[in-house]
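hiii so my PI (J.) wants the whole complex modelled not just the main chain, which honestly fair. so below is everything: two entries, each one labled with what it is. i double checked the lines twice but i was tired so who knows lol
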Amino acid sequence: MNSATDSHYALVLKKDCATCRLIEPVARELVSRLESSLQVYVQDDPSFPASIDQKIDDTELEFSFHNAIEVVPTLIRFSDGAESARVFGWDKKQWQDFLQLADLGSELPDFRPGCGSKSQDPGMEEMLAVKYGGASRAARQLEIADSEDLMEACYERGWTDGLPVVPPTPLRVTRMLAGTNRPADEIIGNIPPDYAPCSIEKAAINAVMAGCKPEYFPVVLATVQGALQEPFCMHGLLCTTYFASPVLIVDGPVTQRIGMNSGINALGQGNRANASIGRTLQLIIQNVGGGRPGGIDRATLGNPGKYSFCFAEDESDDDWPSLAMDRGYQRDDSVVNLFAGSGIQPVMDQQSRNPESLARSLAASLRTVSHAKVFMATDALLVLSPEHRRVFREGGWNKNQVKSAIFDALRTPGEEIVRGAGGIAEGLPQQLKDKTINKFREDGLHIASAGGKAGLFSAIIAGWVASGEKGSQLVSQPIEIES
Amino acid sequence: MSTTLLDPTSELQPATRQLNDRLASLAGATVGLLDISKPRGKEFLDEVEKQLTELGATVKRYCKPTFTRVAPSELSQQISVECDAVIEGLAD
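here's the output for the full assembly
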């Protein structure tokens, strides 16, 4: 027996645990030997153990939380007011040594593992952190009366994009914050147009509302950081009368880990990660940045992607580099790319059987990005489907060859596209009449891969008319994957 | 009892819901007068209408079917489309 007179002990049990039931005779013996120096806490059924009178009901798990109980049974020794040692599970020799009782539990088996503490049940840790402290939030707290519908309360406060949001309770936000190791009060940056600081916590609140799971949160954080990169020009993109808005293309191992969709209907609805990650950025710009349609957002028509436009790339073809790899990253890097895009224009080509024809065909459709006679203004993101990629692969073309063939096919005599040509007032200035003009600036045509395996279709995501250094450029942001 | 929600905004605005912007002037504005159908409401609102008209407002009159219930959605929508402001006329 520990002879230190100022030591006392706490034993934490759970009736549902077979090992706790097994050691009931040990618990009883300890109660009788240690008397008031031992307190027995029970996590689930305060009537257990029936043979012990003095027990403390810990069904609210306050003691278990504050003492970080992971396994039951756990026996803790406190000396001088602080924990000095603990044993858990049942290891006869260990318990005998711990208590200096050579015959303790001699009739019991030598070893039985314990069970998980109830305070470690899924989701319980954050719930207890909210309840007992250790998870205090900096954001303003609003009390919504029970007579109010929570969804309606979010609408009435202007927090939504028109669709319902998940009410951001402290518990949900605390769970979201478990998706990162970064401190909740770290400022990611200032969100335009108000340039209000966005903490990790504010991002988490909006991620909750958008419907994210905590495991998506590192992608969300990278997305916000990417949107704040100067070349992306988020402020102008939000303000513009044009259609464009952020389009997120996610690359690397993270896409499969969190279950993003790069296949059938990749640019459409139905995948939680795709939908909620893209939506979070929009909600952050609206709620933290203050960018609202009709306010600073002056879009004439907008586009449906302003709810959310986010997809993963199909990286199943090792020989075909991803968008991130085009930007200098490796296949193993998880990266989110942001493009200022304006919705989808379909390209159907079911006849081209060789790369030359398909490249010319895609170029013909790309000619109409923003306007068939407006060149060097608007970037484009071409999303190639598996079947169109197959035509290039079977023809022995790599991605660079595809890109340069399209680029070359779009070089156009100025006289065809100057103002007035073809009886159309829109076009390039007359002084370009005798020049040969590129449709896209040097780094203005991007190619990504996605889509279902059936369908000789690809998609053009036209950019912002203010593309390039005068406006927005595609940016890439590595995603910090935490273990 | 209540539920706590965390504010997702920059907190540059007050947490409590704000009134809509007030009209800068009544001149040229269309003001709805909603009679909630309590006795003598009409006489009271007649006088309000007279004063509003003197201030340059155009007045439109509306009436709830009964004071015991909230206005029907159709009536609220009609007023929101036709008026710049509305005064709900209690008669107690």
